[in-house]
Amino acid sequence: MITDSAVAYEVHAQDFLCGRDTSMIGSVVVEQWARTLPAGSAVIELGCGAGYPITRALQSTELKLWAIDSSASLVRGFKQRFPSIPVQCGKVQNSDFFNRTYQAAIAVGLLFLLPEKEQLALIERVAKILVPGGRFLFTAPIETGKWNDLNTGVVCHSLGWARYESCLNSAGFRIAGTFLDRGENHYYEAQLIH
Ligand SMILES: C[S@@+](CC[C@H](N)C(=O)[O-])C[C@H]1O[C@@H](n2cnc3c(N)ncnc32)[C@H](O)[C@@H]1O
Q1: With bands split at pLDDT 50, 70 and 90, how would you rate the model's confidence at 194?
Q2: Which of 7, 12, 136, 160 could disulfide-link to 190, CB 3.0 to 4.6 Å?
Q3: From start to end of 35-159, where are the E strands?
Q4: 108 CB within 6 A, ligand 1
Q5: How far is the CA of 13 from the centre of ligand 1 (A)?
Q6: Phi (first) and psi of residue 68, to 5 degrees
Q7: For ligand 1, is residue 6 a contact (CB within 6 Å)?
Q8: pTM of the prediction?
Q9: What are phi and psi of 66, to 5 degrees?
Q10: Which protein residue's CA is at the shortest distance from atom 20 of ligand 1?
């Protein structure tokens, strides 16, 4: 039984692509959010997969994009589709995030794949790569709980609204809004207070 989401997604990369490439779930929410950012904003996408439909939605706006994903197969697909977007192949936990700052970060379908401690650490690290007032959009349920990821079977961990909110607050964010997409996935929109 694979417990590391990075390993699991590489093993199941082709199956994941078959389903995700033809799904539009999340694209409307992400594009609407992206259009609220100033044109030219630098945005980093964490857990980008091969880029359909989320990177494609982001790219339809006027943002400058950077991306990271741990699956070599998915990153290969991403590079073919988006040759002009800098992409790192590696775990977000170890990334240097291209050693720069951003106006915004986005993580769709990633955070809850990580163990609790790593989720909390990632939120803190994201706060450090954003400029003051920077924005962070991520998906995670409101409810607390564990379940098996449909794509890979790895155990997912939702820390729930109260814990995400308190961790976001400790990292310097406030929750500025929430969204729900067609697949009933919940989005936290956070903004750095200073
Ligand atoms: C559910 S998929 C979401 C992909 C994309 N955001 C989307 O919405 O289609 C999760 C993605 O996170 C990547 N991933 C899993 N664990 C990771 C880690 N520790 N660091 C970076 N990427 C990771 C997987 O390779 C996969 O592409």
Answers
A1: confident
A2: 136
A3: 42-46, 64-69, 87-89, 102-107, 130-139, 144-148, 155-159
A4: yes
A5: 10
A6: -140, 140
A7: yes
A8: 0.98
A9: -130, 155
A10: 91
**What is the token pair recorded at 17?**
């692509």
pLDDT, tens digit, 9 for 90 and up, residues 96-127:
999 999 999 999 999 999 999 999 999 999 99
Peptide linkage before 53 cis (omega within 30 of 0): yes
Extended strands (E) in 13-166: 42-46, 64-69, 87-89, 102-107, 130-139, 144-148, 155-159
Q: Which of 69, 68, 66 shows the shortest CA–CA distance to 102?
A: 66
Look at residue 1 in the predicted model and tell me its pLDDT.
84
Integer Cα distance of 158 and 115 in angstroms: 9
Calculate how far, in angstroms, residue 177's C-alpha sits from the geometric centre of ligand 1: 23
Which residue is it, tokens 């989320």?
54
User: What average pLDDT score do residues 12-21 get?
Assistant: 97
- Residue 176: enclosing H or E segment and its boundaries? strand 173-180
Rounded to whole angstroms, what are the CA distances from 88 to 74, 110, 171?
Answer: 11, 15, 25
Query: Rounded distance, CA 133 to CA 103, Å?
Result: 8
64-66-68 Cα angle (round to 5): 160
Find, among 179, 169, 178, the residue nearest to 127 by Cα: 169
- Distance from CA of residue 153 to its chain's centroid? 19
**Residue 190 contacts residue 136 (beta carbons within 8 Å):** yes
